[in-house]
Every structure is written in structure tokens, then in C-alpha cells.
Amino acid sequence: MEAQQKDAVAGEYYLQGVMETASGIQLKPDSTFEFFYSYGALDRYGSGKWSIANHSIELNSRTRPPLDFKLISGKKTAENSITIKISDKNTNLLRYVLCIVKTKNGEHQQMTNVEGIAQFPKEKADSVSLIFQWCPDRFSTFNINSDNNYFEFGFEPWIAEIFFEHFQLKIEKNKLTGKHPLMEGDNFRYVKD
């Protein structure tokens, strides 16, 4: 019975009624799914397993890694500033990282410039937090050596990946209804193709 229900629900569902946004879910008969979201130049994706319970589908991805950035290097330099540098092959992304440096005097925020650099007044820092502006799901926070004042970070390959944990959508005739993982509200409609 469950296999028949899964076969009936499996298929491609596309988000309806949201201007300038393309998004959808492909529910495969083998209980895996693929999700996509496209808004302007931003493309996000997700995948995992799906199941049926209580007239709803539930999406679950692999466990989300703890950080979306990696610390490449940290060192002490003669500069009279704290420098954060973001490195990536795609240089178009470098200027979209919000950097927060936490010191005993509070938090200091700055966006990286076109070269991926943000500079702060030199003082002992406890941590650096980073968030990619196009994927503002969460901060990556690093406890750092307070003697260092130069830090180079890179994007992890999963930074644009969407991770699902017990994400449910109600099954209705030829559509799924409920929330969207990246947009506010709970009345989104995904129609079966």
C-alpha cells in the first residue's frame, strides 16, 4: 500500500504564484528527492530522502556540516589592522561576505570589498563570524588565536546547498502545500507537472 502511495505521489512539483522565483522538488520513486531554487543570479539546491506520513511528505537531507567556510590560514603580521580575506576561484563572490569580529570592546561588522578583504582596527579578537550574503541561512563562527591579525577563509563546496530536517509538505490532489525552506510564510503551493 505504501509503495502504491509513493508511486502516486512521486513526480516533479513546481512552485506557483511567486514572481521572479523558480523553485521545485522532484520526488523520485526510489524515495530520494532533488530540490532547486533560483532567484535572479542565485541558484540553490538540496537533496536527500523523502517519506510519507500523516498525509504529508517529509524531506530529510544528510547532516549539515558545522561550518560553511574553512579557515585557510591565520598569522601575525606587522599591519596595524585585523584583515580578513576571502579566497575563491569565482572572484564575483568575494564581495558578498559579512564579517563580524568579536573583541572585548564589542562586535565590529564589515562587508568584504571586491577583492574579498575586510579590515578592522587592530585589537585582540576572540572570534570571527562569516555569512555569505546570498545564502544567509547561518553564520560560521571561528574561535581564533588572538595574537593573529590576518585570516584567510574560503567557501566550503556546500555553501549553496539547502539542508532539510523533518521538512513537511501536505499532500493534496496533484500538489504539495506548506512552507518553503528559504522564504517566509507557510502557504506555498507546489503543483505537479
Structure commentary:
With 193 residues, this protein is mainly beta. The protein has two domains: 2-61 and 161-192, Lipocalin (Beta Barrel); 69-155, Immunoglobulin-like. The chain is built from one helix and 16 strands. The chain has one helix at residues 2-9; strands at 11-16, 21-27, 32-39, 42-53, 56-60, 69-75, 81-87, 97-103, 106-111, 117-121, 125-132, 140-143, 150-155, 167-172, 175-178, 188-192. The strands form three sheets. An eight-stranded antiparallel β-barrel has the order 1-2-3-4-5-14-15-16. The two termini are 23 Å apart.
CATH classification, class level of the largest domain: Mainly Beta
Q: Name the average pLDDT.
A: 94
Q: Would you list the SSEs in sequence order as H and E?
A: HEEEEEEEEEEEEEEEE
With helices defined by DSSP (H or I, 4 residues minimum), what is the helix count? 1
Number of domains: 2
CATH fold-level topology of the largest domain? Lipocalin
Question: In total, how many beta strands?
Answer: 16
State the oligomer.
single chain
Radius of gyration: 21 Å
Q: How large is the share of residues in beta strands?
A: over 45%
The dominant shape is: elongated
Biggest sheet character: 8 strands, antiparallel, barrel
Strand order of the largest sheet: 1-2-3-4-5-14-15-16
- What is the annotated CATH architecture of the largest domain? Beta Barrel
